[in-house]
Amino acid sequence: MKTRLPSFCLAIAGAVWAQYQPKPIVPGGQVIPLYPPGSPMLKADRINEPEQYTMHDTVPARIRSLVNVHNPSIEFHPVDKGLNTGAAIILCAGGGHNTLVIGSESADFVPFFYNYGINTVILRYRLRKDGYDARIDAVNDALQAIRMVRARAKEWNLDPNKIGIMGFSAGAELVSATAVEFDAFDKKYPDASNVTSRPDFVGILYPGPSPFRKGLTPPPIPPNVPPAFLATPGSGDRVHAIWAMEYFSAMLELGVPNIEMHVYGAGIHGGGLTNRKGIPMGTWQNRFIDWFRDLGFLQPAGIETKAARDSAEFVKQPPRRR
Q1: What's the domain count of the chain?
Q2: Is residue 50 part of a domain?
Q3: Each residue's pLDDT tens digit, 36-86
Q4: How far apart are CA 158 and CA 278, in angstroms?
């Protein structure tokens, strides 16, 4: 039996919020809860609990990480009209499902992507430490975030065909799930506006275990699975490199177009945009921009991307055996 929930995407802005409402991580951000008051997706006995922040030791007002997320949200940061490509990247910080390392793996990317005309959205998803199921609650939060951002594309001057998601470590674990579970989510939680939760692209950085982890029965890969960019240290972060390779191999075996992976010889887990003392792993973000530009996401809004054309052609092809 399907569970029909109220439209999450269109009626939220005018709602009166009884529960705790998060404040921006980066000044100027517009924060919108993912679910309306009374949603069965939330724990009614915990929605009034405030988030708990860990501040940076030496940098005033810089949030290092946070926990106690019971009212998950998105935080939108637009770019200037003259720069705007219409693309938006939803950022999923890591933290082992015990915390969200929101400073280095979300907030730092707002000014970085701004310079390329890319709008950013910081996702605060629910954590295993706070009593949630990462494979269900957190993945649902990521998929709901994609759907909400796309539903607001006109309001936020976004291209609805350039909405993607990028995650780090545990956040990348959620991202890899969104790439193959969007159709199941949309069917289980139909939205009155019929806006899809499919990401147009995914960025997977030093990821946690993917749906293709060894020992699991792999899920079916949808024919319109989005293009993916993966980057990870190699032997310095062995298990996360293996998980990245499992995802990449599953896509490559099927022949999915525009899948790119970088496994760096040196480097350790985490770090976001940090320079990493000049080693090549410290430039992964430039390789992402190269890939992003190559697929057409940095063109003006409204122009069909190479990623969209290649995906449409792939859908027409007969499926390959895995």
Answers
A1: 1
A2: yes
A3: 988 999 999 999 999 999 999 899 889 999 999 999 999 999 999 999 999
A4: 34
